[in-house]
Amino acid sequence: MYNFRYKYPIALGLFAGLVIIFQLILHQGTAVALAFAALPAILLGIGGIIHKQYTFYAFFILNYVIMGINRYIPIKSGMIMTVLALGIIVISMVKEIQTRQDWERSKNFLTFAWCIWLVYCILEIFNPSALAAPWSIAIANYAFFPLFCAILVPVFFTRYKNFQWLLIIWASLTLLAAFKGYWQRNQGFDTTELRWLFEEGGGSTHLINTGIRFFSFFSDAASYGASMGLSLIVFGISGFYARKKWLKILFWLAALGGGYGLVISGTRSSLAIPFVGLAVYLVLCRNTKAIFTTAVLLIGSFVFLNYTTIGNSNRLIRRMRSAFDLNDASFQIRQNNQQQVYHLMKDKPFGIGLGLAGDKADRFRPVNRHDPLTYMATDSWYVMTLVETGIAGLTLYLLILLAILFKATYIASFRILNRELQGQLYAIIAAISGILVTCYGNEVLNYPNGIIVYTLMAILYIAPYYDRELNQHEANT
Asked: How far is Cα 387 from Cα 90, in angstroms, rounded to an integer?
């Protein structure tokens, strides 16, 4: 049964399509016009045969591996992900014509918050120092993907099993990423990876005096370490709440893989994810046994790394231990860079424009009036946000993130009754808290971590629907 609630927009679209077809016949020929005319039928067919969840699963998987693909086959990864997201939106609109979708699920605080941030990012195009090209590239990661996930995940993942399948897919991808890191460490790098390290400059940050930082099929070791840390917390905690034995085993294997990947990445800032994550979980769980176990693990790990020299002969342990050294040379360089950035930003309350901070600005430097801020390493997601959107943008961004987390914590703590679901939500909140702290040390909300985090945020806000479903199922059995 087709849904004709949108007959006027459809009629307008048909009229516009006829005008375009006429222009294509005049300027591009009949073949191009016919191909364009066939698009609605193709989209209707795709919308009819493909389950909406599958399109997002495919999007999620590609997001996870696209930077690895980019290393071997140079592609415009950002453009591909944006176009794919737009394609999913079009398919959703086609499905709306065929069967009414439950868009009410998307009307929540998360969507509202990301809409505010999107408006701010759109207004950044009027920044006097902004450039259209970098703005159009950067806005996808900044604002489009968060809102895309906030709106479509609730509509696509209408059942708890949809969320469970997402976790299973993510756990499998985590194991794949951990295995690739293991292969690099024990079998060495392949030709393409060696070229990236020795000819394209990757070695300057990955072949260092403390050893090799492994990166699996990610863009760099920082993104790899952050993603593995995220998996470590989410699956490590969720494993304790999973009811099915095989799911417990899968989650704990993924957690072990995540822990291994985090360690071999050599990314010290990513250690914040397990430490902050466990601390947040300690506050949330309200279970005496879990609190005791988590506290012992957290305090024991901190004491081991910060107050002992046990295992210093192992370079991986030695590098992790340096994360707690405030006199570390790398940390001091970052602090000095940030002080210079703060000084240069005093007269730029709205930043220099999206996409113009750090390495990303390389291709635009001939036309960016040689702003010194575009030459300075930001080394932090928040410093990058400060440079590109100003203190006004960074303040708004941080307030939005904190509000999203506090609201999600309230939902998980007081509106969820199912123990398994609540444990998974606590794991997600803990992991997101950790990665947001890690953002101070590295730019890690790029592919794939950004979309993973935005997807998890959307799950937090539709959890009450899952809770009702699970409670009803238990009542009927």
From this structure: 34
> What are the Cα distances from residue 124, in Å, to 129, 134, 144, 252, 389?
9, 11, 14, 43, 7
Least confident range from 39-43, 114-118, 383-387, 392-396: namely: 39-43
- Length of the chain counted residue by residue: 477
What lies within 8 Å, CB to CB, of 390 at 6+ separation is: 345, 348, 349, 350, 351
- Please state, in angstroms and rounded to a whole number, the distance separating the CA atoms of residues 425 and 324: 29
Per-residue model confidence as pLDDT tens digits over 432-456: 999 999 999 888 999 999 999 999 9
Show the CA angle centred on residue 113, arms to residues 107 and 116, nearest 5°.
115
SS3 assignment, position 43? helix
Q: What is the pLDDT of residue 92?
A: 80
Q: Give the integer Cα–Cα distance in Å for 285 and 69.
A: 39
Element (H, E) at 68: helix 52-72
pLDDT tier for residue 4 given thresholds of 50, 70 and 90 = very low
Distance (Å, whole) CA 221 – CA 216: 8
Smallest Cα–Cα separation from 434: which of 419, 444, 424? 444
245-267 per-position pLDDT tens digit = 999 999 999 999 999 999 999 88
Q: What SS3 class is residue 182?
A: helix
Q: Name the burial class of residue 405, with classes exposed (0-12), middle (13-18) and buried (19+) by CB atoms within 10 angstroms of its CB.
A: middle
What is the Cα–Cα distance from 236 to 413, expressed in whole angstroms?
19
- Between 358 and 24, the more confident residue is 358
Phi-psi region at 348: left, alpha or beta (left = phi > 0; alpha = psi -120 to 50) = beta
Specify the DSSP element, H or E, that contains 335.
Answer: helix 329-344
Is the Cβ–Cβ distance between 447 and 67 less than 8 Å?
yes
Q: How far apart are CA 341 and CA 57, in angstroms?
A: 39
pTM exceeds 0.90 for this model: no
d(CA 70, CA 169): 21
The residue with tokens 């809770």 is: 467
Q: Fill in the DSSP letter of residue 314.
A: S
Coil/strand/helix, residue 108: coil
- For every residue of 376-427, DSSP letters joined together read S---SHHHHHHHHHHHHHHHHHHHHHHHHHHHHHHHHHHT---HHHHHHHHH
Helical (H) or strand (E) element with 237: helix 221-241
Handedness of CA 473, 474, 476, 477 (dihedral sign): positive
Could you tell me which residues are beta bridge partners of residue 211? 208
